[in-house]
Amino acid sequence: MSLLTAFSFIVIVMTGAILYITPPGRVANWTNWTIWGLSKHQWGAVHICFGVVFLIASVLHIWLNFRPLMSYFVRKTKDASKLRTEWILALAVCGLVFWGVLKPFAPFSSLLDLNDHIKNSWEKPQQQPPIPHAETLTIAELAKKSDIELDTIIQNLKAAGIETNPSDIFGTIAEQQNLSPNELFEIATGRQTKPAASGRSKGGGGGGSSYGQKTLKQACGETGIEPEKAVEALKAAGFEATADMRIREIADQNTMRPGQIRQILENL
Questions:
Q1: Are 46 and 69 within one domain?
Q2: Which residues pair with 34 in a beta bridge?
Q3: In this predicted model, what pLDDT tens digit does every residue of 169-227 receive, in sequence order?
Q4: Could you tell me if 17 and 105 lie in one domain?
Q5: Cβ atoms 31, 44 nearer than 8 A
Q6: Rounded distance, CA 196 to CA 27, Å?
Q7: Alpha helices by DSSP H, the chain
Q8: Rounded to an integer, what distance in angstroms lies between the CA atom of residue 64 and that of residue 80?
Q9: Phi and psi dihedrals of 102, rounded to 5?
Q10: Which residue of 13, 20, 73, 134 has the fewest C-beta atoms within 10 A of its own C-beta?
């Protein structure tokens, strides 16, 4: 039980550090942000679940070691002055941290400011959603709130081989097309044209295989990137890849979407 408590504590610390640097939800969801192949939502879920495991393991650890712990406190009570000092110091530190968070002052204010700075640093003007959490809206709602003609969005998506209805959820369409909501929005507004044969439409139409079915070499040929350079870049990012592997295979091995692999390649 001690090992389970220790391991779950380590995971909590690690996931807590990752969540400290994650971008705001409006950015993470809009760009399909991931770190080590996991999204912000997935890291949050891991953090919560291991927090519960840590809590249960700690309670069981205390229960299994109740007598030794009681003996420890009994020994401590014999030196009441030391026990009193420890209690006072522990409560004082906890009180100071609690007050420092509610009424920010250094160093707590600096820690919170750094958190805001890191989170906001992920935002790029070209990747900002038209409105927060736009991926949760239907196409009709997104068109209305972003002041874009609904017919324009529908026609731009149709021209890219994506058949949609005004009542379709924007984020769901993006996921079905192996795109980030930001990429789909670029297509919907006519600022970007979806590569030929990059995916099936919602209704099963659209010619050719999806982007995920292409080999890395084929994908590189479309974007003018040397396959060797792409393989080196992916390996440097911790991904196992060869020029003959399919994009879908590379993505699945790293718990990613093919669209995220494409983003990496386009940034080379």
A1: yes
A2: 39
A3: 988 888 888 888 888 888 888 876 654 333 333 333 333 335 666 788 888 877 778 88
A4: yes
A5: no
A6: 27
A7: 2-21, 25-31, 40-64, 66-77, 80-102, 108-121, 139-145, 150-159, 170-176, 181-188, 216-223, 227-236, 247-253, 258-266
A8: 26
A9: -75, -40
A10: 73
Q: Say if residue 167 is in the same domain as residue 62.
A: no
Clarify whether residues 24 and 111 are in a common domain. Answer: yes
Q: At what angle do helices 108-121 and 2-21 cross, to 10 degrees?
A: 60
Domains: count for the chain = 3
Domain final position from 158, 176, 208: 208
Residue where a domain terminates, one of 121, 140, 159: 121
Same domain membership, residue 101 and residue 134? no
Which string of DSSP letters, residue by residue, matches 157-174?
HHHTT----TTSBHHHHH
Structural domain including 104 reads 2-121
| 142 and 185 in a common domain | yes
Instruction: Check the CA dihedral 59-63-69-70 and report its sign.
Output: positive
pTM more than 0.70 = no
Three-state DSSP class for residue 37:
coil
What's the burial of 74, exposed, middle or buried (CB within 10 Å: 0-12/13-18/19+)? Answer: exposed
Q: Looking at the structure, do residues 15 and 53 belong to the same domain, yes or no?
A: yes
Report the C-alpha gap between 203 and 165 in whole angstroms. 10
Amino acid at 109: S
Handedness of CA 188, 194, 200, 204 (dihedral sign): positive
Residues 66 and 114 in one domain: yes
CB-CB neighbours of 145 under 10 Å: 12
pLDDT, position 207:
33
Domain with 230 in it: what CATH number? 1.10.8
